[in-house]
Structure formats: C-alpha cells, structure tokens
C-alpha cells in the first residue's frame, strides 16, 4: 500500500476572491464553481504548491491509501 497526499478545498474558499493558489498550479487542476474553486483530483499531481499560497487557508492535505 502506498500513501499519498491529496488536496481538498474547504468552505473557506466560498466567495474567496484570491487566486494565488491557482497561479502556482503546475497542471491547471483548479476549476471554478459558482462561488468557489475546486481541485480536479485526476489532474492534481499532489505537488503541494497551492497549499501555502491559499490566502483563505481553505486547502487541506488529506492522506489517502492508494492500492
């Protein structure tokens, strides 16, 4: 079993106007919802560059097993 880190965006992102996290994404994994951003887990390469750039502290790393 391999453990990897995925990133999710929480409620702090709702109506957030900052896009610094999007600007550093190497693979354009972010997409825009009605009033929030989200990360496409299939595009994300888990580089963690977005996490420290999030001004709203909405991005959270989550450990998940991958079989």
Automatic annotation (TrEMBL):
Cofactor(s) needed for function: [4Fe-4S] cluster
Limits of the 4Fe-4S ferredoxin-type domain: 35-64
Domain of life: Bacteria
Keyword 4Fe-4S: yes
InterPro entries listed in its UniProt record: 4Fe4S_Fe-S-bd, 7Fe_ferredoxin
Keyword Electron transport: yes
Coiled-coil region: none
Keywords of the record: 4Fe-4S, Electron transport, Iron, Iron-sulfur, Metal-binding, Transport
Molecular function, one GO term: metal ion binding
Protein purpose: Ferredoxins are iron-sulfur proteins that transfer electrons in a wide variety of metabolic reactions.
Protein name (database record): Ferredoxin
Organism this protein belongs to: Psychrobacter cryohalolentis (strain ATCC BAA-1226 / DSM 17306 / VKM B-2378 / K5)
